[in-house]
Fold:
Amino acid sequence: MFCSMILVLSLLHFAAGAGAKYDYDSADYGVTTWATRYPNFCSGTRQSPVDIVNTMPNKNLGNIKFDNYMQNNVAVTVTNNGHTYVTSSISNYNPVPFISGGGLPGTYQLAQFHFHWGDDSTKGSEHTVNGKKYAAELHLVHWNTKYSNFSEAAGKSDGLAVLGIFIEEGEANTYYDFINLTRHDVTYPGNTSTTVIKSLMGLLPSRKSFYRYYNGSLTTPTCDEVVTWTVFDRSISLSRSQLEQLRGMKYFTFSNTIAPLVNNYRPVEPLNGRVVYFSGASHISQNFFLYFASFTMVILAFLEK
Ligand SMILES: [Zn+2]
Structure:
């Protein structure tokens, strides 16, 4: 009964990993076991998340285009699926939101969004930047509309596009009040609730033109290598009490105990030669121009001597 419940709930998280048994820290099912338990693909060479260190500017990367993201106060379902806090029933958005442009090889429709977080604010994000971990990370999961549905897309190398948003502890963010409003209804795995999302755009950082982009995978088993990742440069902030709401969630361990649902992030995976592109080419050129100008002035000053 419980297993089938988890299986059904896992479908809500990532259909591609439906039924995969995993957690983050147990000896039998934790992250260190994923590569052996799920050799296709958790031991692959195009895995996520990654530590973002060196990026290659790509001036051809335009802004991500957001369509139908401007609908306000839409009712959605939120669920504790035993792995995360996930918001589904995006079908209540009419017309459905989708993204294109940026580094995306197609048009991708929103399916759900969910969070990864730590037991304190020193960790919790999946991606890191020069080793820096953020307190949490929001993932907005989209599927390529050239396929007929999410499940079909989730089996294709260009099937999914996830937007990653880093979350830091700071000012309270009222766009995320749905977490405070629903968390007590979804403390335990299998719990669901309904709530209203004030604004999808409000969940995103205000500056969306700077982002990193690379080809990777789902960050939960079965780790399918089907995700085009877009990770925004600018983070958003939640207050400590908003983050504490997420940390108050629970899950059933495989030894049938109730435990805090925290640290539900996968450690970073090697790039294996992959390139992480950066959209901020104009920003880089500006810096380059400043360096070039300073360099020229030094040379001129030297010649005048
Ligand atoms: Zn995720």
Summary: The two ends are 85 Å apart (CA to CA). The first strand starts at residue 51 and ends at 52. Residues 2-279 form a domain with the Carbonic Anhydrase II fold (CATH 3.10.200.10).
